[in-house]
Amino acid sequence: MKIVYWTFILSFILLSCGEGHKADMKDYGIIPMPNEIVSEQGNYVLQGEKTVAVSSDESSMKVFQYLENVLKNTSVQLKRIAPTEQADISLLIDTTLPDEAYTLEVSSHGIKICSNATAAGLFYGVQSLLQLMPVEIYDTHRKYENDIEIPAVRITDAPRFPYRGAMMDVGRNFLPKEEVLKFLDLMAFYKLNKFHFHLTDDQGWRIEIKKYPKLTEIGSYRKQTQVGHCDYYYPRRFDGKEKQGYYTQDEIREIVKYASDRFITIIPEIEMPGHASAALACYPELSCGLGKTYVVRDYFDVFDEVYCPKENTFDFLEDVLVEVMDLFPSHYIHIGGDECPKKAWKICDHCQTLMKREGLKDEEALQSWFIHRIEQFVNSKGRDIIGWDEILEGGLAPNATVMSWRGEEGGIEAARQKHKVIMTPGDKCYIDHYQESPEFAPLAIGGFIPLDSVYNYNPLPAELTPEEQAYIIGTQVNIWGEYIQTPEYFEYMAFPRLQAMSEVQWTQLKNKDFNSFVRRLDKEFKRLDFCGVNACRNFYEVNLTGAWNDVHHTYEVTLKTFCPGVEVYYAVNDSVVSSSSDLYKAPLALSEDATIYAAVYRDGKPLGKITRKSFAVNKATGNSYQCVPPPVVEKVNEGIGLTDGIRGYTRDLRRWAIFREDSVRITVDLGKPVSVSKIAFASLWRPFDTLWPASELCVSVSADGETFTSVGNQEYTYDFTQTEATRFPVSYSFPEVTARYIRLELLNGGLCPEGYYHAGQQSRLAIDEIEFY
Fold first, then answer.
1. Is this prediction's pTM over 0.90?
2. Which of 173, 242, 253, 557 is the most exposed place for a label (fewest CB within 10 A)?
């Protein structure tokens, strides 16, 4: 059926392409880009009273009422008439169209939108129509009294994927109902149709369950929340502020209806068997016991507290799921299944007896048995489960759909097993990661996923055959809530990356174009502003990157902005930037350490804040090196990260090369004999991560890379009375020598000391930029 569906969609798009020319999308500003749009002559003027021909069925009426509500801030009044009558605007049913497909025709005589009987396509056609209108119709501070001129176009459109999702995590930090409704409105703008509602986790239970009132009486409350990353401060810091909140069943029903009116299905997630601390704090008898005291967690980690696969546990979970399924009509119920430590199961007598009785070879098989049993119950109610890709471990439940988050491997495996897959790999789809330089951005969980990385994601892996790719039903962005405590910050993380993902989800690959997208997004920011959305403004700022140019033997800094049609001005080692500063035209060549400041201007006015970045340019920069042993982690500029001209910083581990062994030898090849008299580098102290700074440096030099002569060594001591992660820069000076090869031998910090995390364990060494002077 899936292959037939996609064949239908593709045929629909191809056969609908008529005469005319594809419009330049900057003229229309529709996001996501329609799959076929043809410009016509003239425009249609929307003003005064207009008749709307529409059927009286519930789905079509939803669309009419939605359009009427959006236009209530204008001078336009809509009057509904029968679909058989002549009208200014026609919202019609065409049974030949596939699900969610639509056609939109705007001429000087009127507007016509067609879809099949589900009317989802009508709704999406209305979204495209609204984006053809001036964004000022969304300005709630003043009524739009002008005529609404709509360009004449013909659009034939259908989504690339049937599953187009976004996830909101309210388990970690509760967000009010009003923010949920606002986000559903914004999802509707961009034709997303699946809202994944992450309702339970270790830090909170957010949905009222009548049969188990403690889940919200106890489980929705915690006394405090960690400050910053849990591995950043020593010891951990907490804000001392109470955090609580949950949705009543009446509020859930309101949210579900609100979503349904916007053709969005809400998929609830009840985590199991892991991420269960909040539930076990309410009902500890559902655990393996083991003498633990269970609490709603006030910091973020993967905890050993998991459900014990006992009969009373399954009774509890089935009762919860019955109430959840009564509230959410979604065909899918998400049961989590990720990050489930097996420590408790390994030492639990009941679990070990159960494994022997069921012939389960290990605890991974026990997790699969657990998921199978829950799936059977959910299937008995006419529903199917979705789980994170860990549910593959020990054998995949028969009817399960896999949400692949640890890369694409889980999704590829599931598709080959003929299971439905939703691709949501963390390095492309986790938009709780940084989207602008982590050095200066608001705190995020980690990683770096800028706007263009999201946009360029293709959810169909090339290693799958077309038949296997057909099992990938869509993709989803996830907005995990560990560091998102306010609606404003949630919106900052979500936008504009959600718009980029909408085009991944909707637009056929051949029709995508990032340059077109940013032109349209430039207009769309105005609508977000009118709707009170706190979108990230990095779109209007400068992103600075530096790299060694092997051809010109210079270090070059490139200044880029996503915003089209603007000018970039910059200054070197000067924080004052204006339209009188130097205009950026080509990469900047640096011969020494420098900080570049830059800003975006349009028509002589600044669009965003001044951004800056420092670069370390010295005799080591751009040169190759060898590490023995190689680093276990080198996430940025692998193989050149230690001489790429960019120093690491404490908040982001991505820029550091991390070594596990007690010593490391780094040999830098300068390419030719060079005089050197000083070496500098930095190492990182983060006790939680077993990262301790280098204790000793030995330096030697060579002319041929074979015979090395020592030039000295130095031991280092540090101030460990710090209360937060610290970058410790050090240097070593020696009589000037001339050499092509310079070798650094570093000893790590030894065993983690008593009184700190992981006491007695071998520490690891994290170093950043190596500098020669």
1. yes
2. 242
